[in-house]
Amino acid sequence: MTIESQQTINTLSRLSGMQDLTEDFLRQKQGFQNRLSQLLGDYGYQMLETPVLEPTELFMRKSGGALASQLYSFIDAGSNAVSLRPEFTSPIMRHYLENETNIRLPARWQYSGPVFRFDSSHPDSSGQFTQVGVEIIGSSDIEADIEVLKLAVAVPTQLGLSGWSLRLADLDILNTLLDSVDITDRARSFIIQSMPNLSAGRSAVPNFLEKGRLIHLVGGENGANDPEEEALRQAIHGLDDNQARTVLLGLLQWNSADQLGQRTPEDVVERLLQKIHGNDTEDKLRAGLELASDLASVKGSPEQALNAVKNILESASPNQEALERFAKLIDLIIRDSDSQGEIVLDFGLVHGLAYYNGVIFEVGHPMWPGTLGGGGRYDTLSRALGGSEAIPALGFAYNLDALISIGAS
């Protein structure tokens, strides 16, 4: 018996989350894509295809690091950090920024293609799936919000699906509340990302207040800082962040370059800046968490939810502009909608990506465990990707494979 014959050859299997698609499924998929492309084209959305492979930094900047654990990433032969795209929004904004002198605003694009995400906690949405969606770049008008929302609810209706639900919230309302307690941007981001868990109400506040202490959002009792932090604060007083980084980097490299371990000096400086600039008083953080928990617990029919939010806002801030805009948007959506779904306002809804502002939404269905799709407004994304100014933009994306699965059943 030869050595070769003694060896067992393992049968190779497809990767977890990846699927082999049969002809029947592909025909149905092509039919769905054609119908949706026609629908979106009728609204003036031009097709755009972006590369499957992009610089990893493109997605890290966009998500604030939230997508880091979900990326399929590697170093290519040219020593570049690259990733399979996990979504289309940032590549489309990158396309706009590279070609903005030749693009007339507002620009409307539609897309359809494979995306790749690894998510061990949600195996149904892990691996490769097809996204279909739209982006409007260059319009801050409420009419653009209405257009995108009407299209979002038209997608399942166009495919003959009923029984779905549209959940909406508005981050501008949350930010109006947080403006009233004058907290730092870092504390604001912490509270926004905590919104789903704050929906339990004020009983959740002590737990998040303790988390805030652990990550140095508050500088000890009532914001007191230790002597070393205070010395660093004085050293960078009056400097902008870029100047402060230069000063701190020089101090760090001169004084403790051998104590960094595997961290780069730049990483340590960013942590120092966050810690120095990020100290709110405990009272301010508690007040912000309490207001946010009041808002996050609001969920229900549009009329009921808007009345509850109005009462919360009136007790904290005289600024009703964000609520009035959102109420107008909801009224127009309900009035113009001929859809076969339910509209719910859920102010505990927060997308896991850092760049959203204004209206956000998700579409779900009882026959699908996750979300079918979602979207919102992201007026600050262009700056995060290196643009010279903030460009108003919004859009949505659907998991086409999920739509097909529900339609087939």
Order of helices and strands: HHEEHEEHEEHEHHHHHHHHEHHEEEHEH
What is the terminal separation in angstroms?
A: 53 Å
CATH topology of the domain at 23-166 and 349-408: BirA Bifunctional Protein, domain 2
Say how many strands there are.
12
> Which runs of at least 5 residues are low in confidence (pLDDT < 50)?
220-224
**CATH hierarchy: architecture of the domain at 23-166 and 349-408:** 2-Layer Sandwich
Helix % is 40-55%
How many DSSP helices? Answer: 17
Walk across the major sheet and give the strand order: 1-5-6-12-11-10-7-9-8
Description:
The structure is a single chain. The protein has 17 helices and 12 strands. The protein has 409 residues and is an alpha+beta fold. Among the domains are: 23-166 and 349-408, 2-Layer Sandwich (BirA Bifunctional Protein, domain 2), CATH 3.30.930.10; 226-277. The chain has a 9-stranded mixed beta sheet, with helices on both faces. A 3-stranded antiparallel beta sheet has the order 2-4-3. A hairpin with a 5-residue loop joins strand 3 and strand 4. The longest helix has 20 residues, at 23-42. The protein starts with a helix and ends with a helix. 34% of the residues are buried.
Give the helices and strands, then pairings.
Blueprint: H1 3-6, H2 23-42, E1 46-47, E2 53-55, H3 56-63, E3 73-75, E4 81-84, H4 89-99, E5 107-117, E6 127-137, H5 142-158, E7 165-170, H6 171-179, H7 185-193, H8 195-198, H9 205-214, H10 227-235, H11 241-255, H12 265-277, H13 282-296, E8 299-300, H14 302-316, H15 321-336, E9 342-346, E10 357-365, E11 368-377, H16 381-384, E12 393-399, H17 400-408
Parallel strand pairs: 1-5, 7-9
Antiparallel strand pairs: 2-4, 3-4, 5-6, 6-12, 7-10, 8-9, 10-11, 11-12
Helix pairs in contact: 5-15, 7-13, 9-13, 11-12
